[in-house]
């Protein structure tokens, strides 16, 4: 006897999903050990540092988390002797933790720090001070006497890199009027002089000589490696129709690393990731590793390289690969998934009104269940946040939570996503609230037209900017039977008025400048047209969210209630932008599956 879609018995409980999803935050070679950052959902999402020896390097209640640019990143580093440097989540000061000791602050309070980098015995960081007007940011060097400014101003900074002889520092810098993936420059400080180098959307400078620099830029429309000898002209290194790099939301990502022998290990993204070795003569070969999503090349030591990320057939983890022997060792995580429960996602490309739309389809899978033969499965369309971000078709217990119950998942990289080049990324400029709604609807219809999904049982789910797209799609109507918005944007004018510095001008590029575009802000905001929504809505919101404050969800809740539209609203105390606490993750997942089961239940089901 078959079991209705959406009600299949599953071993993937909400609690097991919460426990199986620690976030990895960088890895490093430390003496004979390997260290990595890892979130602890059961401790409120505290970020700890662990060692391959089995010990916890950063004990509770300390937590390494940066709030620079609001999204942080690069919250810890370490030296070869086992001294840990980290940004404490509570006060945002940089602390030093020596073996057997207790954390000692190195910086004063009042400013946030992130993007820590220890190079040749010198510690660098990005600093952001929101206590002064106007707000200021800086590249600083930190020692026992405190922080020393190398460059500062109202601009934004990332990726400090020290030359081998210690005489020059390079970094990425951009004006708040543009997002870093639109335009970001490269700077080099030598003594008291700071030189600006030509660049479009630069990322991650790395020195390979006292006067020779590698970095990433996209003059051809794809982020590729560039090589520059000071005083000369940059040239591409093993150019490819793929991106080495993506949106600079956080400060800790590394998309490539040079080795001392002249080789380069790099990530190339075209939907999914590929890790390649670029030989000294320019030849390129793939490195056979299990990770193929959001891979970070965290560190190199001799011929060994540390990679963190996720994969289409493995859980998130950290791996150590030897370039000469080809040996790949799993450091933490990286457990192979059982393909009977979670087959690899199927890449999908459909034609949309704005061009091709990329997505990954996860079909329902449960080896213990017989699916109904006279029905097509329901699907929930996932819409990533950002919106300048992307998904990679990674294996995930969070996705198996749905697919093992008989609800398929379609994860969409709509136009505006990274991972497919600048032209695809810029499809959203001036068109947010229209173009990506076109794309998610086209992807959902394409799946249904291919006979893979029930067109009457399609839901849509998204977080932050993805929540905006959820509500915008429901306002348009005609495709989705329900929507789940996690801390979604509902009112563009309110968001623009209360936006933090990093995204202060983001909406201007996605919609238009104010006040000239105020009519567009009103017209595209889901809150303006809440009465057009005619399907059930689930709203989930963090009470302490500073990026998309609760007032956004409060407003759409009130509008839905005023128009008699079926909805449920849950406000989670202590949660910010993105749910970190295990109890929140569990409650949200359980509410989501109960919501979808109600919406997707076939009329004849006796459940």
Give a verbal description of the structure.
The protein is α+β, with helices and mostly antiparallel strands and 607 residues long. Helix content is 16%, strand content 35%. It is built from 10 helices and 35 strands. α4 (435-449) packs across α5. The longest helix is centred in the last third of the chain and has 19 residues, at 582-600.
State the main characteristics.
globular; 607 residues; alpha+beta; eight-stranded mixed β-sheet; four-stranded antiparallel β-sheet
Q: Report mean pLDDT, rounded to a whole number.
A: 94
Q: What share of the residues lie within helices?
A: 10-25%
State Rg. Answer: 24 Å
- From the N-terminal CA to the C-terminal CA, the straight-line distance is 14 Å
β-strand percent reads 25-35%
Shape: globular
Write down how many β-strands occur, each being a DSSP E stretch of 2 or more residues.
35
- In spatial order, strands of the major sheet run 28-29-31-30-32-33-34-35
Number of helices: 10
The structural class is alpha+beta
Regions with pLDDT < 50 over 5+ consecutive residues? Answer: none
**Biggest β-sheet strands, sense, barrel:** 8 strands, mixed
């Amino acid at each position: 006897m078959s079991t209705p879609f959406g009600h299949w018995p599953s071993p993937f409980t909400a609690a097991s999903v919460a426990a199986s999803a620690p976030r990895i935050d960088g890895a490093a070679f430390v003496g004979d050990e390997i260290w990595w950052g890892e979130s602890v959902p059961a401790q409120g999402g505290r970020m700890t540092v662990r060692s391959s020896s089995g010990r916890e390097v950063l004990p509770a209640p300390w937590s390494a988390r940066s709030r620079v640019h609001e999204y942080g990143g690069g919250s810890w580093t370490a030296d070869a002797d086992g001294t840990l440097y980290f940004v404490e989540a509570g006060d945002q000061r940089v602390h030093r933790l020596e073996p057997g000791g207790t954390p000692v602050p190195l910086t004063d309070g009042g400013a946030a720090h992130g993007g820590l980098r220890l190079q040749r015995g010198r510690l660098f960081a990005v600093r952001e001070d929101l206590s002064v007007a106007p707000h200021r940011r800086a590249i600083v060097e930190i020692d026992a006497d405190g922080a020393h400014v190398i460059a500062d101003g109202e601009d934004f900074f990332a990726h400090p890199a020290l030359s081998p002889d210690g005489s020059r520092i390079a970094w990425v810098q951009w004006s708040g009027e543009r997002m870093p993936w639109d335009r970001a420059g490269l700077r080099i400080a030598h003594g008291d002089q700071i030189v600006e180098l030509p660049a479009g959307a630069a990322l991650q400078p790395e020195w390979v000589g006292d006067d020779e620099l590698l970095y990433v830029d996209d003059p051809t429309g794809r982020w590729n490696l560039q090589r520059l000898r000071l005083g000369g002209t940059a040239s591409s290194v093993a150019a490819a129709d793929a991106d080495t790099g993506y949106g600079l939301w956080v400060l800790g990502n590394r998309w490539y690393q040079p080795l001392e022998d002249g080789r380069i290990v790099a990530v190339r993204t075209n939907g999914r990731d590929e890790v390649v070795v670029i030989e000294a003569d320019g030849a390129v070969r793939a490195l056979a590793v299990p990770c193929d999503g959001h891979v970070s090349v965290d560190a190199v030591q001799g011929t060994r390289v540390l990679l963190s990320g996720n994969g289409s057939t493995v859980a998130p983890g950290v791996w150590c690969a030897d370039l000469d022997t080809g040996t790949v060792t799993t450091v933490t995580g990286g457990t192979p998934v059982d393909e009977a429960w979670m087959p690899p996602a199927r890449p999908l490309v459909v034609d949309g009104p704005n061009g091709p739309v990329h997505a990954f389809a996860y079909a329902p899978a449960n080896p213990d269940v017989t699916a109904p033969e006279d029905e097509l499965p329901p699907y929930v369309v996932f819409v990533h946040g950002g919106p300048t971000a992307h998904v990679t078709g990674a294996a995930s217990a969070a996705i198996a939570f749905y697919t093992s119950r008989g609800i398929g998942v379609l994860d969409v990289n709509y136009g505006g996503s990274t991972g497919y080049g600048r032209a695809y990324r810029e499809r959203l400029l001036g068109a947010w609230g229209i173009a990506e709604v076109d794309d998610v609807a086209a992807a959902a219809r394409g799946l249904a037209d291919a006979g893979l999904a029930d067109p009457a049982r399609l839901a849509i789910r998204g977080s932050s900017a993805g929540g905006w797209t959820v509500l915008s799609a429901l306002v348009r109507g005609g495709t989705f039977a329900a929507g789940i918005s996690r801390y979604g944007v509902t009112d563009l004018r309110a968001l623009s008025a209360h936006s933090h510095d990093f995204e202060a001008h983001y909406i201007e590029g996605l919609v238009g400048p104010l006040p000239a575009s105020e009519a567009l802000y009103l017209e595209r905001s889901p809150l303006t047209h809440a009465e057009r929504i005619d399907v059930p809505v689930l709203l989930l919101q963090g009470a302490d969210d500073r990026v998309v404050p609760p007032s956004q969800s409060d407003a759409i809740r009130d509008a839905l209630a005023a128009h008699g539209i079926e909805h449920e609203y849950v406000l989670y105390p202590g949660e910010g932008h993105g749910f970190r606490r295990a109890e929140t993750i569990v409650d949200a997942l359980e509410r989501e599956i109960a919501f979808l089961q109600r919406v997707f239940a076939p009329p004849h089901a006796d459940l």
